[in-house]
């Protein structure tokens, strides 16, 4: 079975796929009499011509390594941001598009203080927390037209800690 | 000094001010082969005619009780959602509007697994985490026109645990 080792999530490595949202570096503004740093407008949100932003809550069952990756999906009509509501690392699987199908996936693990925003159309694995409670806020496109493509790999991948 | 006791945050009590976003009750959909519950489109987002959705990260210094409340603010042009990125309770202060100025504030404490969305125009206190890391994702209106009104109380309130 094909194996993939996880990498630590960084903005540089994740740049082809989406945004890493965190509070590293200097804030864009200090607000609230200096009590709060604002890292301003850090996600390339895109809900397409027919969509609008929605905020949903996802509660997912935590997974363990080795993780068996059988499919990835993408949303052609909108970006999708995942904000963890606990300070726990989670697994983020993405893949480049190669002529309309996913190429070799990459697997990232967050540092516990990162959210992500997948760009519109990015191939990605389903939400895979690594710890309870598996609770996330999701900012994605609400609309009436189809917005999901799935790709099942002919042979699954095994994801292992890097 | 005027004192206010905190209340536990519930959707029923918070309804005049905004949405409580959590994973209580049955999910609207089961997705990802049953591994994930989706509580779908739970926030009344509103970014006004000239605005768009933005996703920012706030990092705020935790506060303690008794908390001295000197001002509230509101955003006439948009809603503002606060998603905690750690499973810690935080303090949410809101006030009804009474003829253009805030009435008596109310103070809520979340249960550690709740996010909130303040409706457009709701008077509210600044972001007040009660624990480190004080990290939040904020979904609010990005635009070019003014979107902040502040009200300083002639006499501060003291917020005490309920």
TrEMBL record, chains A, B:
The keyword Glycosyltransferase does not apply. It comes from the Bacteria. Keywords: Lyase, Purine metabolism. Pfam families: Ureidogly_lyase. The keyword Lyase applies. InterPro entries: RmlC_Cupin_sf (IPR011051), UAH_cupin (IPR047233), Ureidogly_lyase (IPR007247), Ureidoglycolate_lyase_dom_sf (IPR024060). One of its GO terms (molecular function) is ureidoglycolate hydrolase activity. CDD domains: cupin_UAH. One of its GO terms (biological process) is allantoin catabolic process. It catalyses: (S)-ureidoglycolate = urea + glyoxylate. Homodimer. This is Ureidoglycolate lyase. The lineage of its organism: Bacteria, Pseudomonadati, Pseudomonadota, Alphaproteobacteria, Rhodobacterales.
């Amino acid at each position: 079975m094909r194996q993939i080792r996880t990498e630590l999530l960084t903005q540089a490595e994740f740049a082809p796929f989406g945004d890493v949202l965190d509070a590293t570096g200097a804030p864009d503004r200090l607000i609230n009499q200096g009590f709060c740093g604002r890292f301003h407008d850090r996600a390339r949100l895109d809900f397409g011509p027919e969509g609008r932003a929605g905020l949903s809550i996802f509660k997912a069952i935590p997974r363990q390594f080795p993780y068996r990756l059988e499919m990835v999906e993408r949303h052609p009509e909108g970006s999708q941001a995942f904000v963890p509501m606990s300070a726990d690392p989670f697994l983020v699987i993405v893949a480049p598009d190669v002529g309309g199908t996913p190429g070799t996936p990459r697997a990232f693990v967050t540092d516990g203080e990162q959210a992500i925003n997948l760009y519109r159309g990015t191939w990605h694995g389903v939400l895979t927390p690594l710890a309870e409670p598996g609770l996330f806020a999701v900012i994605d496109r609400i609309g009436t037209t189809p917005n999901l493509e799935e790709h099942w790999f002919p042979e699954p991948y095994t994801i292992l800690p890097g």
